[in-house]
Specification:
mainly alpha, ABC transporter involved in vitamin B12 uptake, BtuC, 14 helices, 2 strands, about 65% helix, about 0% strand
């Protein structure tokens, strides 16, 4: 078991490990907006992952230069522009997908989203003009890479990823704690009641679906810039969808801090499974990895159904406080208050009314 953590004493390895944890933390927060807060059963995360990564690569790389390298565009845009473009592309994709699917029941929505994700992957495989087919896109630019050597660059990119994750976390937390976020949670708990309260269920679901898609697009861009080479095989359901769902379930659905914790816990198992097998090329390596991930999911569902850091109970600041009641009048009332009633009684007596 000691060998499981040996590589963490190597700073470059630890930096690379944390970069991927932060990237998957962004994906987990995006999925949390869909499922954790709104109840949208999106099982096509890999589609947003792929669109974000390819959009970033096309926007930031230089134009393709003949030979077997072919892909659309190549606009040599800055990192921030590529990041934003990836998010917008995925938000548009979410809007297109959401029009026919968001009115479906949860299980049908999951099936439809899986189909969309796999369709997008096959498009990237077969359309050479768009993505260079199975060869993929290599040499994807990295921000500030010219400032330091390649060995030290991981530390810079680790800081960039930490800043992006922090901004995404704060933005989502602010939105979820607003009246808009309370409507999303009401839809998650009971759509019929929320609709009876006058809320446009489809509009709010679409907004949440687009926001989560935007965040996933940013995660895809961060991943593409880090690995610098993407192919359609990267975005298979196991790596691009199932793993992110496991992170959210293990960490705690409905809690962004739990989503990040889940990304750390699950990626630790995924990354370090090789330490439990003598040869990483041994076919048993993949079986052991999948077995461990499955065991973790089952253990969490049995022992902590809400995850390692489940959804926090939100209580109004007025809860538990007794309402202020008017104080009863005492027997010793001021003389002026008693005297104020006398003229009416005297007038009644003088008029002979009994």
């Amino acid at each position: 078991m000691v060998g499981f953590f040996n590589d963490f004493t190597n700073p470059p390895y630890l930096a690379g490990f944390l970069i991927l944890v932060l990237i998957y933390g962004v994906f987990a927060i995006g999925l949390n907006v869909h499922w954790g807060y709104t109840g949208i059963f999106n099982f096509g995360v890999a589609g947003f992952f792929a669109v974000g990564a390819y959009t970033f690569a096309i926007m930031t790389k230089e134009p393709a230069s003949g030979g077997y390298i072919t892909y659309i565009g190549g606009f040599s845009m800055p990192y921030v522009v590529g990041l934003f473009a990836a998010g917008v592309a995925c938000a548009i994709l979410a809007f297109i997908i959401g029009i026919p699917t968001l009115r479906l029941r949860e299980d049908y929505l999951a099936i439809a989203s899986i189909g969309v994700a796999e369709t997008l992957r096959r498009v990237f495989v077969n359309e050479m003009w768009l993505s260079n087919g199975t060869r993929g896109i290599t040499g994807i630019p990295q921000p500030l890479h010219s400032l330091v050597s390649s060995e030290d660059y991981k530390y810079i990119y680790l800081g960039i990823c930490a800043v992006i994750l922090l901004l995404v976390f704060l933005a989502v937390e602010r939105g979820i704690r607003s009246p808009w976020g309370r409507v999303l949670r009401a839809i998650r708990e009971d759509e019929v009641t929320a609709q009876a309260s006058g809320k446009n269920i489809f509009a709010f679901k679409m907004q949440a679906f687009m926001l989560g898609g935007f965040i996933m697009g940013i995660g895809g861009a961060m991943y593409a810039s880090y690995v610098r080479a993407i192919t359609p095989d990267t975005f298979v359901p196991m790596f691009g969808t199932f793993l992110i769902w496991v992170m959210l379930i293990v960490g705690g659905s409905g809690n962004n801090k739990g989503a990040i914790l889940g990304a750390l816990a699950v990626w630790l198992i995924w990354d370090r499974t090789g330490a439990l097998v003598s040869d990483a090329n041994d076919p048993r390596f993949f079986y052991v990895r999948n077995l461990l991930i499955g065991v973790i999911v089952v253990a969490v569902l049995l022992l902590r159904p809400k995850g390692l850091w489940g959804e926090e109970k939100r209580v109004s600041v007025f809860a538990g406080k007794e309402p202020e009641r008017p104080k009863p009048k005492t027997l010793e009332e001021p003389a002026e208050a008693v005297a104020a009633t006398m003229p009416a009684k005297e007038e009644a007596g003088e008029s002979g009314v009994t």
